[in-house]
Write a structure and sequence with these properties.
The complex is a heterodimer. Chain A is mainly beta. In chain A, about 0% of the residues lie in helices and about 55% in strands. In chain A, strand 9 and strand 10 form a beta hairpin. Chain A starts with a strand and ends with a strand. Chain B is mainly β. Chain B is about 0% helix and about 50% strand. In chain B, strands 2, 4, 5, 6, 9, 10 and 11 form a seven-stranded mixed beta sheet that branches. In chain B, strands 1-3-8-7 form a four-stranded antiparallel beta sheet, with no helix packed on it. The chains are: A mainly beta, B mainly beta. At the A-B interface, strand 5 and strand 10 of A face strand 5 and strand 10 of B.
């Protein structure tokens, strides 16, 4: 059974770095791309980037300068790190798998609030 | 970037009704359009991929149609468990972009 679960800090201060972990089960990270998407009040759903099954990455240019996606295949985990956070980055962050199609399975998401 | 305009934003319908939700792309996306269902507090669920392919395990009352710039999700006979927000995604070209969502409630 495919499962994805995001964990994160909940509250982050402006200018700080956000770190979120996506832990997966039911499939191997070496066989599937993994995506990150966020949903904010201001812009709705936005694709942020992905890490390929081979480990290379692609980013939405909107986030490219401050986003990093990585993984630890031995732990079945994918990581999102985004620096220089602003209040507009407040929202729900999702990881999703790209299988038969981009975003075939999603996690429940983790709410992140950027506030001092 | 390709803009996805979804309509309506809000929809109220009765059990048994035929419901349609639309997505319009700002340019040709061929058939690279997916539909998702999101219930409160749950992970989004893939319903339809590549415009008209039904994801495994999804009830046949859900169907998708369209190509190019205009796409439709149809629920042939609305059930109470279909109350949710629905959104579309284009994956024809990067950056992949989403529709604004349609909140479906029971009348």
């Amino acid at each position: 059974q495919v499962q994805l679960k995001e964990t994160g800090p909940g509250l982050v201060q402006p200018t700080q770095t956000l770190s979120i972990t996506c832990t997966v089960s039911g499939f191997s990270l070496t066989s599937y791309y993994m995506q990150w998407v966020r949903q904010t009040p201001g812009k709705g759903l936005e694709w942020m980037g992905f890490i390929r099954s081979g480990g290379s990455t692609e980013y939405n240019s909107e986030f490219k300068s401050r986003l990093s996606i990585s993984r630890d295949t031995s732990k079945n985990q994918v990581f999102l790190k985004m620096n220089s956070l602003k209040t507009e980055d407040t929202g729900v962050y999702y990881c999703a798998r790209a299988g038969i199609t981009p975003f075939d399975y999603w996690g429940q998401g983790v709410m992140v609030t950027v506030s001092s | 970037d390709i803009q996805m305009t979804q309509s309506p934003s809000f929809l109220s319908a009765s059990v048994g009704d035929r419901v349609t939700i639309n997505c319009k792309a700002s340019q040709n996306i061929n058939r690279y359009l997916n539909w998702y269902q999101q219930k409160l507090g749950e992970a989004p669920k893939l319903l339809i991929y590549n415009a008209n392919s039904l994801q495994t395990g999804i009830p046949s009352r859900f169907s998708g149609s369209g190509s190019g710039t205009d796409f439709t999700l149809t629920i042939s006979s609305l059930q109470p468990e279909d109350v949710a927000t629905y959104f579309c995604l284009q994956h024809n070209s990067w950056p992949w972009t989403f529709g604004g969502g349609t909140k479906l409630e029971l009348k």
